[in-house]
Amino acid sequence: MIIRKSPAELEKMRRAGLLVHQVLHSLKPLVVEGATTWDLEQAAERMIRDAGARPAFKDYYVPAVGQKYPYVLCTSVNDEIVHGMPSQKRVLRKGDIVSIDTGAELDGWFGDSAITVPVGEIPEQVKKLLKVTQESLELAIGQMREGNRLFDVCGAIERYILANGFSIVREFVGHGIGSRIHEDPQVPNYIDRRNENPRLKEGMVLAIEPMVNAGRADIKMKPDKWTAVARDGSYSAHFEHVVAVTSNGPWVLTRP
């Protein structure tokens, strides 16, 4: 069931969303050669807890894995698509890219966002991957209007990614969000006609998160059971925003 939010509830979600934005923005300068993904993890947890919020991912139970996720961040480097696990052993090198995904619960409401950040200079094709993935998210945000349908959001991402020669990861999708980190509906980054195609209504809130591979779409899982990687070893990008449908159009709750 899709739960629509009142204006007052959206304001509460906005506070959680802005906190997540602030955390991610503050982590960007830490993404440098020689840093570890554990450095990012420690900084993020400190910022979230100092704000009086709770890290949304830490201790979140995932039935498909049969475990609770143990960290505040997902830090996915290069060919890692999503759910990469922070580690003192994962040292960032010049030319890497790292996707940083995090969420926070503040006063009972959730924010969730992701960015992909380069470590120094990166090849032009990798720059294009990041640019196109981010632009596909903006196109999807533009479809978050009353009267449109969910497939308008999904299709905007799919068309743009494929037109630019990249591949869409199909195993992981966006989602509704509110007083729970994951709510209905699922939000694939492609049109899946097996899914329902609800009309968008005021108060609906979606976490939209294109996950895009530079090479083929096929994935494999690392032995840690969490980290998904591109099977062909190609780089992967991930961006995410939480977006509300309002009478005035889309409202991105995870950016100023």
Which terms would index this structure?
256 residues; alpha+beta; Creatine Amidinohydrolase; 5-stranded antiparallel β-sheet; 4-stranded antiparallel β-sheet; 4 helices; 28% strand; globular
Structure notes:
By secondary structure, the chain is α+β, with helices and mostly antiparallel strands. It has a single domain (7-252), classed as Creatinase/methionine aminopeptidase superfamily (Creatine Amidinohydrolase), CATH 3.90.230. It is built from four helices and 17 strands. The strands form five sheets. A five-stranded antiparallel beta sheet has the order 10-9-11-16-17, with helices on both faces. The mean pLDDT is 98.
Number of strands: 17
**CATH homologous superfamily, by name?**
Creatinase/methionine aminopeptidase superfamily
**CATH class call:** Alpha Beta
Main beta sheet strand tally, sense and closure: 5 strands, antiparallel
The CATH level-2 architecture is identified as Alpha-Beta Complex
**Termini distance?**
29 Å
Count structural domains.
Answer: 1
Low-confidence stretches: none
Query: Which secondary-structure class do the elements indicate?
Result: alpha+beta
Return the CATH topology.
Answer: Creatine Amidinohydrolase
Number of helices, counting only DSSP H or I runs of 4 residues or more? 4
Estimate the helix proportion, in percent.
25-40%
Shape call: globular
Using only C-alpha atoms, the radius of gyration works out to 17 Å
Query: Helix-strand pattern, N to C?
Result: HHEEEEEEEHHEEEEEEEEEE
Quick synopsis:
27% of the residues lie in helices and 28% in strands. The protein has 256 residues and is α+β, with helices and mostly antiparallel strands. A five-stranded antiparallel beta sheet has the order 10-9-11-16-17, sandwiched between helices.
